Amino acid sequence: MCEASLIQGRRRLRHRRTRPNSVQRVSIWERLKKAYATDECAKRVLSKVEGDFAIDEQGLIRFKGLVYIPSQMRRPLVQEQHSLPAHGHQGVTRTFERIARHYYFPGLRKQVETVVRECDICSKSKSNRHLPYGQLMSTPVPKGAWKSIALDFIVKLPPSKDPLTGIEYDSILVITERLTKYGKFIPYLEASDAEALAYTFLRVILADHGLPEEIISDRDKLFTSKFWKSLMALLGTNHKLSTAFHPQTDGQTERLNQTLEQYLRSYVNHQQDNWIPFHP
Question: I want to staple 265 with a disulfide (CB 3.0 to 4.6 A). Which of 61, 121, 125, 174 is the partner?
Fold first, then answer.
């Protein structure tokens, strides 16, 4: 079980609003064309198109098919692409790859590295990484998708109300498909019993993906209860418990938990009670 650290990660952050989306902003194309007037490369291309540059029907400058970004808009573009909720304050490689699919300007990767390194939210919300302690024994690779899953909880979250149902949750049930590393994140109540967990398992996993051959979890009281053990025996599912006080046994789920917590810390409000709309 993973106790969430949203409060600790955000204690020094001041409340800030999320940037408006593209529908609310002035058209980026209009902003680009206005910025051409102060960009030396753009002025040269507009006066004489040559090489791999071209001007499309909208009047935009393109380099090998990619939209050319003038100098004054480069950093704002990278900051926006890095911080949008849909992109989740990802690292240098993913941010660079996303931008490079559509835009071009010299020194793009270096600009991405600078923005990510200087991002205030990333510095306060991302976990430190280090090599695992001791020798780890990896679990066998599953034979197929949804044959082996891992279950874990992120608990002690600030209570957050689902805007659709009005139900308030304080935890997240994390389900990891071990072959593809696909994750499901289910809002949950920490006070729920083993019967409620069984119902969620049957509704979310069995109904959509069939019965797994194996489940890996920690030694939470729900997973060690007589009810849960009886259910696993009845279904014929092999339930493996991770080593006590050794979260590395189920490293995939622990890493997924950290990624989710980092994402939520980046976008929740100052009260930290609006994580439900942001959870994937």
Answer: 125
